[in-house]
User: Fold these one by one.
Assistant:
Number 1:
Amino acid sequence: MWIIFLMGEDFMIKSSLKENKITTLLSESLEKNIATLKDIFIDDDTIAIRFITNCHNTMLKYCIVHNDGLINASIINENIIKPLMLSKVELSRGQQIDILIHQVVLINQVKKTKEWQEIIEAVTYGDTILFIDGESEVLILNSKGFNIRAIAEPDNEKVINGPREGFGEALMMNLSMIRRRLRNNELKIKFRSFGKRTHTQACICYIDSIVNKNVLEELYRRLDTIDIDGVLDTNYITELIRDSRFSPFRATGYTERPDVVVGKLLEGRIILLVDGSPVALTLPYLFIENFQSNEDYYMNFYYSSLARFLRIFSFILSITVPSLYIIIVAFNQEIVPTTLLTNLVRERMGVPLPAVLEVFVMLILFDILKEAGIRVPSGIGHALSLVGGLVIGQAAVSAKLVAAPMIIVVAVTAITGMLVPRVDASVIYLRLLLLILSATFGILGFISGSLIIMTHLLNLHSFGIPQLTPMEELKYQEVKDTFVRGPWWKMLNRPEVLTKNKTRLGSEDRGDCD
Amino acid sequence: MKIGVIAIKRLVGILLILILCTLLSGCWNYRGLNKLSIVTGVAVDRKDDNNYQLTMETVDLTAASKESAGKSQIIQSEGKTMFEAIRNAKKRVTKKLYFSDMKVLVVSNQIAREEGIKSILDFFMRDAEPRETVIPIISQEKTAKEIFAASGVDAKIISEELQKMIDKDSETTASTRKIANYQVFNMLQGEKEMSLVMPAVHLVLNNEKKVVEVNGIAIFKADKLKGYLSPEDTHYYLFTVDEVKGGILTFPSNEKNQKWYDDLSFEIAKNKTKRSYSYDGNRLKFILDIKTTAVLDEVGADIDVIKKENIEKIKSTADRVFTDRLESVIKKEQIEFGCDIFGIGTMIHKSNPLLWSQLKENWEYYIQTMEVEVRPEFLIINTGLEK
């Protein structure tokens, strides 16, 4: 312990020295500045430094610095080096920086700065830094040019109907996809950076006239408290800012699709995008969003309503089926018809494990299979399904290790669980909770477990907004996009809890809103 | 610090809920499905002066293969009381006898006649496991256990077959009256306005095998068996208590026919009996307005049923024959048993409690001297088609 502490202190002293170097101001001397820069980026060979002198006036010395691999070389050659070298503009040492911006460099985004910290962040993001001899300011020139993944349909949010476009890892490209769908001045896009070391760019988008200002304020307040080393994916931020942090249910939504993002923006939600992650964070999050899919809105409302209902029903089934099975076979046999009971008994004859243990074993086995299916390289996927399906399903039953109804129970649990991927983590835990309670107290345990779950759900909030609306506050208009997906011409209002500006369809003075 | 207190409070709350669960739960004990033996029916006989003999029919689960699915097993035991006999049976089997799926309780006519059925039904009403909807049945055979020795026609488990037969009876054959254990108890308690009737079964030969057949009803005075009504009489009896949902009525087509043989069949589509009574200070009168909708399904005589006057003739004959037969059934009951199986007492008690308190002392006398008025209304809605 002591040694670690000492080492820690030592490390702190060193790093504070480095901090000091960064905080030193820029000097007017080009050589000094470059020396400092080299010191900052010591042992980093990707930093390219190039000195330039104007051919008409050799007194004008420049130095450009960029990070190899993040830049577009032709921009630097054609639009920075060439004009600097060949410029015939009247320039004098010490008073040239504004003239350079206005008349020489051919770059769309130029920024003046005196801060080393800003320089570091710019260089590592693909910008080119122009050091000018005799100036204590530098220019940050946009020369980004890195390779990014092509736009593709997100694998986990596939649709049959509707747009196929999905987000990529580059923030600006993602923003362009959103902007293309929302061409008005009310879409606000605010940048922010997170991570003490990664300085990850993130941005917050909302539609000014629809968004709930209280939620926005609360979001900024929570974002201000973030103090983390690095942010590699949106989930880092999600977990840091969410409500009821220990709840297995989501308090914020996620999507990889620009169409979904725009849909959420139009309902008054706020979007948070993080550079380097294709996943957008949407908030506030209502519980019903677990069961909504963007495709619901692209397809016939009859079909979508059925799908909605099936998802909600599956969610309930996935949580309750194993515990109901236990209740039937171990506690309250009188609740099933005689024929079913005799069949169950016949199947359970000669099976070694008690039903409760059997359910546990099979459920855990299924989760193992599922995890293996996700992690396994795609080439051996077939072997996995063969082993999983055939061995565990068929062979276990014929070898009388597991009763056949158990396989059906696990299969129903698994398939229904897959219908609602947004709650899959919570489903596993709730299922186990109910199972343990049912296995010890029978149907009473089941009922009290359900009550615990309902209480928890009713307590869930997302940025101050309750995730489930209590029954007495329910309005006809609000139900149109929950258990069913109402036709578009019927969904006149936005969800009331999300926004004050609730009219979605038609004019404000329509009398029939509820 | 404060958060800690809240967390502890919550934890205590959850623990309290869980502990309360154990207190609130009634029968939540864990019993493995494969350690149960499902009893479907119980037959009660008198073994000797001291002991009852119970014959329990259980689902045979020893061979788990598909061929033996639905076979039954017989477990017999003796004991001084019902419960003791059931406990004694446990000495012979390893599994727990499980009574929640019990369908029928067959009582031998000897016990029902000599000792009454209340002491037998009591256990099945009082114990937690058997349902109150168990159907008590009187066996017309020498012993009750013979019923379970019969071979089933549809189901291999006799109890199941019996239950289904009696359950669907009022819609198809209308030859017996279904009654559940709790209803028997209700009738035997309190004022006893109505006499108890129970389904009766016997064995018949079918394709050289003995099978069970529903055979009318058994009539009780208090809880003691008095006699039986035949299936056909039972059908007419069901008209008087408005329990007919189906069944076949046969009538002669021609009244003048010497032999009065039935050659027309009617299928009852709907029946509604309005029961009422009148009392003139001396004698009771039982009035029945019977509205029957029927379909003419079989014409065994040379009659053109398309013609309206023929239908009218058939109708008037049917009305008369129906009235005659119904009245004779009631007469027979009045003379032979003299007990109120029609529920007239209940009717009077509900509509005129004063009159009831006046009549109930000599209730049997009033039933035996009761007059009957039948007002049938026969409606033939369909004469069928000849292809």
Number 2:
Amino acid sequence: MRSKLYILLASMLVLILIMTACAPAAETEEPVAPGGRLQLIKDRGKLICGVNQELPGFGFINPDGEFEGFDVDFCKALAAAIFGDATKVEYRPLVAAERLPALQTGEIDVLIRNTTWTLTRDTANELDWAAVNFYDGQGMMVRVDSGWETLDDMAGATICTTTGTTTEMNLSDAFRALNVEFTPLLFESTQDTNTAYETGRCDGETSDKSQLAALRSAMANPEDHVILDVTMSKEPLGPLTAHGDNQWNDVVRWVTWGMMEAEETGVNSQNVDEMFNSNNPTIRRLLGVEGEMGASLGLPNDFMVNVLKQVGNYEEVYMRHLGPEGINIPRGPNLLWSEGGLLYPMAWR
Amino acid sequence: MSRGAEAAERRSAVPFWRDERVLKLLGQILFITLVILVAAWMLSNYRKRGLTFSFGFLDEEASFDLAEGLPFSPTDSYARAFLIGVVNTLRVAGLGIVFATLLGLIAGIARLSGNWLVNRIASVYIEIIRNTPLLVQLFFLYFAVILNLPGLQEAIMLSGPIYLSNRGFAFPALRPTSSFGSWWPFLVAALIGALVLLILRRRTVPSTGRPAFNLLWVGVPLIAFPAIGWQFMRGQPLILDPPELVTMSGGVMRIEGGTIFSPEFMALLLGLVIYTGAFIAEVVRAGIQAVDKGQTEAARAQGFTQGQILRLIVLPQALRVIIPPLISQYLNLTKNSSLALGIGFLDLYAVSSTMLNQSGRVVEVFLMIMASYLSMSLTISMIMNIVNRRIQIVER
């Protein structure tokens, strides 16, 4: 009996020694497989894109059972750039709380799910934003009959929001700065937050203004609710990838900027074929007629042609989902820099 | 032949690769190797992604608000936020266990009742609740029932005052005042007095075999001591703090003072009690049916009433069968409380999900969650196992 125990202990000790000898070796291993994420996506034959599934305008499932929205179109654009086929996307609907771990663990290739770019997320969560595709700000929706106009009026109010978002912290900061007391109420899904607000459990609902506009448009009586003229925070939203794979991050970044560049130079899905004959050197480089822009990203040189033909430029995507025919959010800061907005794609050369 | 020699002969007869003892040992070594290999593989994956492991974030400022349970401000630490989650879970699990046991006991006995109506009501309750998912019941209770209660403006008001609305269930609270400090020794005296009487009462009078005095006498010190103390105090040591409806700007109302059970807390507590109660009812029914019919018949022959039979003969014996499955129902209730996330109650899991999102410490936070649930479950098991040991038949 005794000797058995000793053998057991001794063998465990040997094993532990072997393990500890192995562990440092594992540490020095290459963090990313050769070829990186881009090669992995090409080998797989489809892009895995993390999206929202319950936010009208940005990412939701339409009556035909397909993913649709502003963010979803950026997934399609990436697939068009890589494969020349915008349909080669597998969508992963994610709730706010699970979206970052999904990217960290490599379960998805890219997250395009109205995710705010913050310092902590960029560093502590080991993520890399590629670009900003929508400039948003946190707002507050209240009932019209409350007569409230500013956050100061809302002393003692109960405010609903979704957990796992920056919204939660901005809300605390905003009210702390004003020294106004309030009661937060957190839900896991946007839909539940909205239901709780609509049934009167909360006096106010806070989220990004674009999101509030989308939610309000789907309410039974949208005219009973008003989005206050208050902006609690900057919310730069955009696509992001896992930390440490710069090549893949560059692809996401330049496809996003390419769509803005196309709007700036007036190229869209309708006129892209004519534009091949354009004399404008920027357009010639954008469409791959000149230069090796695509090849340096690991993509075909004419990758933007596929993006523009199958998805369209930034303006077309915006108008399709967020314009007057969609959920109707004024472009505001999401106009091109040349038109007074904040969209400023870096130089395409 | 001596025993040692016999063993020595067997050892020499069987080669080691067919020796059962050696094979068992090898099996164990193989298993442990596998476990260590899997753990090392997971660890190396973790490092490959450049993730580090540290609980340092617990001291950092949380900078989010929590509005359920103990007071919390955004400047408090992550550790305090986690504590609030733990306390909220304990609160709902503790109350849930008490009420689910009561409901289960009543429903279980009712299901065996000879009264057709009582019997059927209990059956319908148990079958519907046991055969639908808890999450669906919780969503139904919260979104369809509790959130559809009237708003504060038209709150249901009972005397007390007690308010019931979609902002919660508010009732008067007992709050200690400054003179409570000199009053509580009387409370301790009352408890000690009652305890002494209880012990004295265990000495039965030999001639009758009955306790020396009625159980009601125990109540005397419990009431007398605090009352005497109350007389000597300047001011009241405890005051009743009734909830009050306050109108804010914009005609919006809120409740101040009193104790408020938030709608989320009510929905979760009710949901867990109703759900677990149905399972406990079945456990109770099985326990009662396990008691031999002869016991009931013999008791009836001796002139016991129906109530006495249940209380003195059947239940004490049924308890021996009931307790072990009851433990797993208590554990289920505690673990099921993590469904709170869906209905906005800030339990351990909901707070943690906010924490891991804001801090990015997924592995650390999940380890903390698992350790918390594990220690809660083991504590419940330990207590119930002690109870179980005490009620088993002691054979001499």
